[in-house]
Design a protein that fits this description.
alpha+beta; 2 domains; VC0802-like; six-stranded antiparallel β-sheet
Length: 141
């Protein structure tokens, strides 16, 4: 399914990540998943949150450089080979992935956060190949 991700640009300074977590917590926004990519000068914090538009607003109000981005969330079996199978299908369908990250829901299910260059093509490819992905159990978009 299509979802909104919040991206926050952070200076590489002690405490900046905690500031974001504190601001979101005080606003009642739950963080389901996050990843940080960094360079020597700054980092990009990417978040899946309960209320992305509210998160964007409160971060901007607190002088953070933030934006929202569309991503695809796909449930996958949490077992060896499931990610490879999904990526092989997307590659065969010509879906280019800018980046992805994942988090586990429980012992059986993982959620893959995918940022493809073409959201609609990615969703259509996953739906078209649902049966192949279902052979790993628990797949749903």
């Amino acid at each position: 399914m299509k979802a909104k991700q919040v991206s926050v640009f952070l200076e590489n300074k002690s405490g900046r990540l905690n500031e974001v977590a504190q601001i979101l917590g005080e606003a009642g926004i739950n963080i389901s998943a996050f990843t940080v990519a960094d360079t020597s000068d700054f980092g990009v914090l990417r978040l899946i949150v309960s209320e992305p538009e509210k998160a964007y607003s409160v971060l901007k109000e607190n002088q953070f450089s933030a934006r929202t981005t569309d991503v695809v969330l796909a449930n996958s079996p949490n077992r060896p080979g499931a990610l490879s199978k999904m990526l092989k299908i997307l590659n065969a369908e010509g879906v280019f992935i800018e980046y992805l990250y994942a988090f586990t829901m429980n012992e059986e299910t993982a959620v893959i956060v995918i940022r493809p260059t073409n959201i609609d093509k990615c969703i259509a490819s996953l739906e078209k190949n649902r049966d192949a992905l279902l052979s790993n159990n628990n797949y749903k978009l």
